[in-house]
Design brief:
Helices cover 0% and strands 49% of the residues. By secondary structure, it is mostly beta strands. The protein is globular and about 50 Å long.
Length: 249
């Protein structure tokens, strides 16, 4: 079998390479490995003979790219740096941008810049976030709440749903009417200064209006890589084993 290799970009390193839902575009982050570097969020339209590259956004620390289901928006995490001059680590925010480079928004800062010391800092990926199946809404954890933010209507205020604890992972139902979220029952992080909280984990369901909530199950070895695959079936990893569970909610 003959394989054709194409070089579409060059840099010191890349990360977060992900295909668009229609398989015609790639998004990735590149940096040159220099002090005070600027990470660049790029999108490449993959043609038969060439690739058209667009730089959508530049910042010092960006990661965790996700496409919306309709391929119209890219969502990513912005981290600011540890500042040794003040002994503070600045916070994270979710950013969203349209593919034409417009409509850039910060959905919410996890904490005010410089508010916490480095050991008190944690990043949005450890608080969970997910895009609704129809690509119109982002759900993200902040404290003991899930916030819903509309990607389509900028004038719409964010909606807060109160939880039983901080959401480590968030997953939408296939019909977009509810969410699953994982919370830890551990009393301390996995290591001193770590943002990650270990097992045991509990799984809860909540409707997107925040009016109904239900305990689903508990795993002593944790719940990771949660996915709601169809109707009432979910998948997750626990203790090195992949589980499939049919929900009764």
């Amino acid at each position: 079998m003959t394989k054709s290799l194409r070089v579409i970009d060059r840099a010191h390193s890349f990360h977060g390479v992900t295909w668009s839902p229609d398989g015609k575009q790639l998004a990735w982050i590149k940096h040159e490995g220099k002090a005070g570097r600027q990470d660049r969020l790029l999108v490449g339209v993959i043609g038969k003979d060439k690739v058209h590259l667009t730089i959508l956004y530049e910042d010092k620390m960006i990661h965790s790219i996700r496409w919306t289901a309709d391929g119209q928006f890219l969502i990513f995490v912005r981290d600011s740096r540890w500042d040794p001059t003040v002994g503070k680590h600045f916070s994270s925010a979710l950013g969203v941008i349209q593919l034409d480079g417009t409509n850039l928004k910060n959905l919410k800062w996890l904490s005010p810049p410089g508010r916490f010391s480095m050991h008190g800092y944690y990043s949005i990926p450890y608080s969970g976030w997910a895009v609704s199946p129809d690509g119109t809404t982002v759900a993200f954890g902040f404290g003991n709440s899930i916030w819903l933010y509309s990607l389509r209507r900028s004038e719409t205020l964010s909606k807060e749903i109160h939880l039983v604890g901080r959401a480590l992972e968030i997953c939408w139902s296939p019909d977009g009417k509810g969410l699953l979220y994982v919370v830890s029952e551990a009393k301390a992080p996995v290591a001193p200064g770590s943002a990650k909280i270990g097992p045991p984990h509990s799984l809860y369901w909540v409707d997107k209006e925040g009016r109904k909530s239900r305990f689903v199950l508990r795993e002593e070895k944790g719940i990771y890589n949660l996915q709601w695959v169809k109707e009432r079936d979910i998948l997750y990893l626990s203790g090195g084993t992949l589980y499939k569970v049919t929900l009764r909610i």
